[in-house]
Write a structure and sequence with these properties.
The complex is a heterodimer of chains A (113) and B (298). Chain A has 4 helices and 3 strands. Chain A is of the alpha+beta class and 113 residues long. Classes of the chains: A alpha+beta (113), B mainly alpha (298).
Chain lengths: 113, 298
């Protein structure tokens, strides 16, 4: 199956919010984390991550802050905001309902996830 | 950072057309990402050249990234919508309410236009300033028309000096705006063909008489309506994210407004004037695009 290539469209916001809910992360770390946790399914063009992150930031769902590393390099860490957490909870419910409904159709014998 | 990477980042920066502050943040982030990626790839045993090639392939095409960045940042807030459409709205109001005949109202609008433009120009040139900037070109046109009324002989002396100077100033403003984004130049120039169209409808020679004043009274509501149409266009323009939609909107709006001008001045749309003016108008909207390509190639 062709993996998801474009992080700007579709459900990318939900995935990014889910990752940032657990800890603040910087761009490169998010790419690696998504790849590892999806077992390689979410491999996409890495440059498209930043428009997606900035779109979430402009919507007030996440907040980016620069942090200076001991070696002098700078990284921009993204934190989920209260508004982002509310949005994530709402989307999580919708996704879980959707998965349950799809599973009931694909595997009629199962009673849920 | 190698030349390839520098060119890669420069290509994104140039095509994303961001405000300076946003540009600094996103370009620093992309640079930091590339450094992390290179470090890991070189650590895995690749040579610097191989790592650079792999890193750029993983990042994706500059055009695609720049387009997505543009779309993430291009949509203006409702405050920006209000600010950007305000000059067209005010100008339209002058004619709809027939305030154009009162020097006080005209002066207030002109001072407001000049002051707002100066404020926006010296505060980061946000998208909303460009519609205002278009109207600051108007006094230049008005002064040019007033020079036609100088005593006989003087016009012939002054006009050959004034018009090249005015044209030089206009080109300079257009170049400065185009360096930011050619679409902003088109946005700025949008009202000019409409103003010139109405001026020609009122007086084809550019000289004003009692008869042209009567025509101005007659046309005033339609002139106002054409500027209200521009205000609506700009409001939608600021809210749109996609660039192709913005270009289509400007083309459609100029078609509508030009139809209004030609229909009310000639009484018909099917004549030779309309397609001629339309080609000039669309050409005028696209001139900044050609200028931008020329500036980039330099």
């Amino acid at each position: 199956m062709e993996p998801k290539r474009d992080l700007l469209k579709g459900s990318s916001g939900y995935l990014l919010l889910s990752l940032l809910e657990q800890q603040a992360m910087y761009g490169y770390q998010i790419v690696k984390e998504l790849e590892v946790r999806s077992q390689g399914y979410f491999r996409f063009k890495e440059g498209t991550l930043y428009p997606a992150l900035h779109r979430l930031e402009k919507s007030g769902l996440i907040n980016g802050t620069w942090e200076v590393l001991p070696n002098g390099r700078q990284r921009r860490y993204y934190h989920i905001t209260a508004r982002g957490q509310a949005k994530l909870a709402e989307e999580k419910t919708q996704w879980l309902d959707f998965f349950t409904a799809v599973k009931l159709i694909l595997q009629p014998e199962s009673k849920g996830i | 950072m190698t030349l390839n990477l520098t060119q890669y980042l420069e290509s994104i920066r140039s095509d994303a057309r961001l405000d300076h502050s946003d540009e600094t943040v996103i370009m620093s982030e992309l640079e930091a990402h590339i450094e992390d990626s290179l470090q890991e790839l070189i650590g895995s045993g690749l040579t610097k050249e191989e790592a650079t090639k792999t890193c750029l392939a993983q990042m994706g095409s500059t055009k695609s990234i720049a387009r997505q960045i543009y779309e993430a940042y291009s949509q203006g807030s409702w405050k920006q919508v209000l600010l950007a459409s305000m000059p067209h709205f005010l100008f339209g109001l002058l004619f709809v309410l027939n305030w154009w005949q009162y020097p006080t109202w005209v002066s207030i609008v002109l001072v407001l236009i000049l002051a707002t433009t100066a404020y926006g120009w010296f505060h980061g040139k946000p998208a909303w300033v460009f519609p205002w900037l278009g109207y600051t070109l108007l006094p230049v046109l008005v002064v040019g028309l007033m020079l036609l009324y100088l005593p006989r002989g003087w016009s012939f002396l002054v006009l050959p000096v004034y018009f090249p100077l005015a044209l030089w100033w206009l080109i300079r403003i257009v170049i400065m705006t185009t360096r930011r984004d050619w679409l902003f130049s088109s946005l700025m120039l949008l009202p000019l063909p409409i103003i010139i169209g109405w001026l020609l409808a009122i007086s084809a020679s550019g000289r004003f008489s009692e008869e042209s004043l009567q025509r101005l009274y007659y046309f005033a509501p339609w002139i106002g309506l054409s500027f209200m149409g521009l205000a609506l266009t700009i409001a939608v323009f600021i809210r749109l994210r996609q660039r192709w939609l913005r270009v289509s909107l400007l083309a459609a709006s100029s078609l509508f407004t030009l139809s209004l001008v030609v229909y009310h001045s000639t009484g018909a749309l099917i004549n030779l004037v309309f397609p001629g003016l339309l080609i000039i108008m669309w050409g005028g909207l696209l001139v900044p695009l050609l200028l931008e390509r020329r500036l980039k190639n330099k």
